Records
---
Amino acid sequence: MANERFLGSGMKFPPKVDPSTGRFVISAGEQSVKESVYLILMTQRGERWLEPLFGARLLSYSFMDTSPTMLGLMKNELASVLLEQEPRISDVSITIDPTVRDGCLLINISYVIAQTNQQENLVFPFYLNVQPEEESDEQ
């Protein structure tokens, strides 16, 4: 119970209403932390006008090439943003599978919940705006 108090609770993300009570579903503990990490990644910096520094700049990578240099820049920036904006986690490690499947990169995020020393992970799909290959006009 003390663990949940430290990690907190809040409205589940994405928001859901409990059909039996008509109230918003609450998320607590480790699940609350995981949803917070996901929310940071899904929010574009500047999107929340009262908190302009909240979120990541993932959209700036939408048209990137998937070279090791660009993936390294993305990985370092995401780790920094998560450590800066989610105080309940530490030891963030990010790996990105360089293989693009259906326009999607898989970002593997592992972190430690600081209070409990519990290892957690999240696989985040990042969709690139990949231009479809043009069909050849052979006649």
---
Amino acid sequence: MTAIEKIHSLDKFGSRPGLDRIKRFLSILGDPQDKLSFIHVAGTNGKGSTCQLISSVLVDAGYKTGLFISPYIVDFRERIQINGKMISEQTLENAVERTFPILEKLRDEGCVITEFEYVTALEFLIHSEAECDVVVLETGMGGLLDCTNVIKPPICSVITVIGLDHTAILGSTLTEIARQKCGIIKSGSVAVTSRQTAEVMSFIEEDCRKKSVMLKKADELEIEVINSGLSGTTFLYNGTLIELPLIGEHQVDNAKTALAALEIAKERFEITNQNISSGFKKARNPARFELLSEAPTVILDGAHNPNGVEALTKAVKRYVKGDGLLILGMLSDKDSITSVKLLGEVFGAVYTVPVDNPRSLKSGELGELCREQFDEVNVYESVYDAFDAAYDRAKRENRPLVIAGSLYLAGEIRDRIISKT
């Protein structure tokens, strides 16, 4: 088996919160995480964009910067990066060849390591051996029991927007989910939070008080937006003009969260306003309201829960002209009913598709959910057939086309969109 095949063979063990298994595995590897400094990021939405922005600035400032994100869009190695570039295939092969036998021995002893635990351990090992100055570390679905949370107090703990997602595991209320996300906030560190609901902000403030952790609120940063459109947003920060290529008001919030974290990082690293300007301008985050074509307008977005879908619909209303077509595929464990209602307020025609994932909602079932909300519903069993039909129609009728509902769907279709447009 290749390294990727070995990693994906662990998928059958599912996701099981808890830190004992990965701590045991990392101990055998020499606890590589203890040799690294981190900026740790948790939240429901905005984690990926926030991580990309922070990382891009640190790289521009000249620091060897590791980045760990999930999921990937096209290539698995997107998950583990150094200085903004995926690790090499050989680096991954070598790491897996050395560590997989240890994993198999632990399995024989009854300690079953999951895929996410293994990938996290690989990240710690690879970034440690590369002697990264700092690692921007994105959690998986949670925080408190997320296997990234084996690290010592980070440079700062960042909490992006918290919403209702993964409720079966993290809790059914915003406060319960916030409790899990805030598990990454550690005494001896500093915390940053994005704009939150009053309920969530109150919990974060209290959690920081209990842990004697200073809390920096990103929403209190002063910036002046100059202009905003499908090319991104330009704003002034500390007298410096910043060009943010990520599109949408929610990305401005993510930018402010990244800026707040970078202000804390300045106590450890030399970061100038020019580094911030240059780093932001170079930042990219595929499948986050990503403009892939202008004639016709084609936008790819990984929004997969009500919070993300709300941000998507706001951006569509503000930046996209015309009666748009929507290609939609979702996972069965997401709040698809609420998401479909939100999308139905913006789009008239929808093309439902399956997602290349065992948890996919069948396109027919998704189509039935859509019938009450959309004027026109087209059910497809092939993502590619749906895209070809919708794209040809968008071009013929001069209508925008948006593909959304899952980052897995985005990864499956992104190359097809690029080759077609």
---
Amino acid sequence: MWNIPNDVYTILQHYVGELPPYKANTKDSRRMFINEMTIEEQNILLTWLNENKYLIVSDILKGRGQFSAEWVLVIKKTNFLDWVLKPINFVMNHYSNGDIGISNNGNIHLGKITVQRKGGDGGRETAKMLQFKIDPTELFNIA
């Protein structure tokens, strides 16, 4: 879908655990965090992410085709009900704004989006997928 080159694909396979770590003493014996990989591999991944940032953000937030989103609605229930409705292009711009980098714990920042291994599936194969995380309540604080 994103025409991921083989070298980037292999890096991501080590990251999610489809391929085991290629060196000893990693934080997790099932996978590698990005900061445990070589600087060259980190640069390859970050360069590819930088070149494809807007395509990735568009696909994960808006989608493609007939049912692609045009608006984002966030509802917050605390002591009262509050909501915000924003156009998708505004939302995509907000979450893609920022640098691409590696967090201190070895995950990926794609603007304001955190990319990490899904995990938490009790050892099932679906735990070896990428997860894209946003904080939707940020939309309450911007005009």
---
Amino acid sequence: MFKTRLISGIILVAAAIALLTLGGTVLAAGLGLISLIGMFELYRTVKAEKSLLGLVGYAAGVIYYLLLVFSGDPTVDSLPVIFFVAFLMLLMAVYVFAFPKYEAGQVMTVFFGLIYVAVMLSYIYRTRVMEGGQLLVWLVFLSSWGCDTCAYCVGMLIGKHKMAPKLSPKKSVEGGIGGVVGAGILGAIYGAIFGGSMEAALHSPVVDCVIICMVGAVISQIGDLAASAIKRNHGVKDYGKLIPGHGGILDRFDSVIFVAPGIYYTIILLTEGVQALSRFLGA
């Protein structure tokens, strides 16, 4: 089992390196495909994965990524609200004209799936295309997967107090703290190594990378537990079996889904906050 998990992990890391290095439409296409698989796994929990509702959800996911890539500056939240309103209206149309084939809970899950999987994962692409994004985007995975590893190691060594016993009995408060601290240390190392190349994007690369990674680590654990909560509610052990030793896409990317937008907005707050303070002091 460990060997299978290790091999799968290496392949995942290699795929992530390839997509993040190439960036652009290749990264967007890769994230779009991952999103569709993740949406399929989520829709399967409410038995909507092969229904007309599910097809509408998948189509919306594809259209969303096309809009993201071709509608202008992807670092700006410029996608029209009408897209999401139209998506909801279309889902409701399917719901009422096929009534009573679908339940309201299925409609809500299909709508939720677009936001939870496709939109939140798209912030990896948004981070990649911002100034200095070639290096900043790695902080998403450094904080997420780094936190997982550090939390596991610390939890195994000194973990005593359960963090969320009804959701994940093996997670401990000590492990959670270790994950945040460990992610911060990794961020400091990353900032020290690549800080010179990030000065145009970050004012204090080492300090900023520490803050970004620690914020990402906290969000990472919330994302992990949120995915577990959804599985518990629907009596599901794993979302899928696509990745041997890891489960499905949502099992492996549950924390990344939350971390991506968290990292993106933390970077914006750090950069724009410093700029606003400089303008204020200089006034």
